[in-house]
């Protein structure tokens, strides 16, 4: 939901369409960007119904404007995905499903999950992954607090720190030691900091996977 990750989504979508279609092709899309400060305040206050209502209004605007497919560009706010889906007629491409599909295709069964504290500690995302017969591991409490603080205090503000990258690498190493066969980068901003070279096991960049699936569906639509 931060503009940092929204820009990442937009860039990836355009790059993928250009790769698939060639020439001067770019993505045909409608982008509705919210004020992330409002969303963060609702998250911090546990006011998820209000956050869901805000995103329902945004989704309806996108639908009315003519979109054929809705992509919610955030892992954490998939907590209210059901609320959004119930309010619109167009399909919502669920980020956790596209991620689970990639993990399963790689032949893995146990993944570590990095994301906001909401994503790591609540069940809405972990259960969706588990529904695809995956075992989901999350970091210990202190590591979860570190991962969360880097997202909100740094990455959402455009700060990419080598110190934080090294700290994330240590968190990943501990997840691998606990049995993780792969690591889900379950927050759109984490891909601004972490890539495959930072992990001894496969990483699953949820933003890229989400955009790839969206572009596949969009280009397949008559």
From TrEMBL:
Keywords tagged on the record: Isomerase
Amino-acid biosynthesis in keyword set: no
Pfam short name (any one): Asp_Glu_race
InterPro entries: Asp/Glu/hydantoin_racemase, Asp/Glu_race, Asp_race
EC number: 5.1.1.13
Gene Ontology MF: a single term: aspartate racemase activity
Top-level lineage group: Bacteria
UniProt keyword Transcription regulation, yes or no: no
Top EC category: isomerase
Protein family according to the UniProt entry: Belongs to the aspartate/glutamate racemases family.
UniProt protein name: Aspartate/glutamate racemase
Organism per entry: Saccharopolyspora erythraea (strain ATCC 11635 / DSM 40517 / JCM 4748 / NBRC 13426 / NCIMB 8594 / NRRL 2338)
